[in-house]
Here is the input.
Amino acid sequence: MGLRALEGRVLALAPWILAVSLLGHLAMVAFQAKMTMVDLMVYRNASPELFTGFLYDWRLKEFSDQFALPFTYPPFSALVFVPLSWVPWGLARWFWQLACLACLWFVTRKSLQLVGSNDPRRAMLWTGLFVWVEPVRTTLNYGQINLVLAALLLGTMVSAQSWKQGAGVGIAAGLKLTPAISGLYFLLNRRYQAAVWSIVAFFGTVGLGYLISPRLSTEYWFHLLGDASRVGPVGSAINQSLRGALSRTVGYDIGTGPIFLGAVVVAAVLTGFALHASLKAKDTLAMIVSVQFLGLLVSPISWSHHWVWAVPALMWLVYAAKHRLATVTAVAWVLAIGSYLISFLLKTQPSIWIVSRPWYYSALGWVYPAVGVLTLVTVAVVLRQRTSSTSQEDVEHPVDLLRE
Here is the structure.
């Protein structure tokens, strides 16, 4: 039986697979099995402190014996989460879970549409499966914001209207600074109006924060912004950035020194090749994924749940790339996010603050950045070969071109 025939049989069961996955997840929410949603608790409980002036002094001490969790986002983000503090915790957690599941469906469906697949059963099948992969699973368990941001970015960046494109990126960056890397997509596509709109929207969120609390805004933008240690332990296995992986390899936090800068240069060069090939091939999803992967790789801290961008990456690898290297990379992603390796590595480390560890655990701790780099290489190789083949066909069949 061929792969396409096998997929056809599985797609017939897609609604049932999605239904069973959602029911299983919602049962976990109902019985709170490993669903403490500590990050949502931080967003919700800390947000009213925006009006007291103690937003960045506040800590959540429950469920976190090694690190009392602070609020680490801009003041605008706290403002957005204030309405959740007006409703009971039970209602807030259900609302957030349903919203995140809707965003997962949207990201999966939109990714499939961008690679030319409009079959809703595929979106059902993959959404049902993605509910259980590690980046999505931990996003749901922690009550994180990653799926919401991914949906906001993917939904607006492909819009035909410049103001929508820019507003999506600007607001996302106002909520959590790292999505600002998305502006690179506009510059490469020469969508300068969208870039301007993103800047306007971003500074609008900053201005709104200053309007509500000038002191807290100044504290965040001029004192707390570059403090990675405040966000969490850089060397912990859950930090799947280049800085985290390199720090675990050498046994100490490399900071922003020459080792880190060298890795950033390598990541930037590989991303450059991937973006050049994507731009030439006019592959929107490949370009968006490449830009987001660059942000994840070079950020000081990229928790494993930040890597929900593996979802659109996997859709591109499976349905758009059509290349042996893409198949290898897709399998690598399935193993990386389906194996819960990060959860295993977290259990093997004696403390989230201890950076050094046995070499084999350090090597395994490269899993997301390594496959992320492999994805950039795959995008560059596959799309470069595709455009070269297309150019060669144009040369071999000039009469067809004239007829067109």
In short: The CA atoms of residues 116 and 327 lie 18 Å apart.
